[in-house]
DNA sequence: GTTCTGACA
DNA sequence: TGTCAGTA
């Protein structure tokens, strides 16, 4: 059966400089208060992007989000701020592994057998097969390896 | 309406 | 850390 993928879009890097938010949004996203975010920044635990003046609104990037989300999680688990920061730093050393795997794996959406699928990229070194993930009626993830067809319609 | 800094509890 | 004040 020939592969008939219809790639609707390609995911841009999560760390894109376009992926930014202000303190209120970051607070909502992570559950941390704006007071905490400012306090942590004053302690050098987190950092926002460079501001023109002190009165300018803070802008955070994806890295700040991941850091805050991690600290907040450990805080909720009962760690002190100091402990949560320590834990976060320990994991932070290895985040590049998760980051690279995700960046190289999830390449976008595709349509397989008339059903939505996540394009997980090439399955083999020779780049002849591609891995796709789909979910069934019970939301269980199913993986499918399909021969890569260079002639398939693709939107870059 | 949102964010900023500083101050008080 | 929450909250309120007075700004920008």
UniProtKB/TrEMBL annotation:
Pfam families: MerR_1 (PF13411). Coiled coil: none annotated. SUPFAM superfamilies: Putative DNA-binding domain. One of its GO terms (biological process) is regulation of DNA-templated transcription. GO terms for molecular function: DNA binding. InterPro entries: DNA-bd_dom_put_sf, MerR-type_HTH_dom. Signal peptide: none annotated. CDD domains: HTH_GlnR-like. SMART domains: HTH_MERR. Residues 20-47 form the HTH merR-type domain. This is MerR HTH family regulatory protein. It comes from Weissella hellenica.
């Amino acid at each position: 059966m020939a592969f008939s993928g219809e790639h609707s879009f390609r995911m841009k890097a999560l760390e894109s400089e376009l992926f930014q938010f202000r303190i209120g949004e970051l607070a909502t996203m992570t559950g941390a208060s704006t007071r905490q975010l400012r306090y942590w920044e004053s302690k050098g635990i987190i950092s926002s992007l460079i501001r023109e003046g002190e009165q300018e609104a803070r802008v955070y990037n994806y890295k700040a989000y991941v850091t805050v989300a991690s600290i907040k999680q450990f805080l909720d688990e009962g760690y002190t701020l100091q402990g949560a920061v320590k834990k976060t730093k320990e994991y932070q050393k290895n985040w590049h592994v998760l980051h690279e795997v995700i960046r190289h794996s999830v390449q976008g959406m595709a349509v397989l057998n008339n059903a939505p699928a996540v394009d997980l990229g090439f399955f083999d070194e020779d780049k002849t097969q591609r891995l796709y993930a789909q979910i069934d009626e019970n939301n269980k993830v199913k993986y499918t390896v399909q021969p890569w067809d260079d002639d398939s319609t693709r939107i870059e």
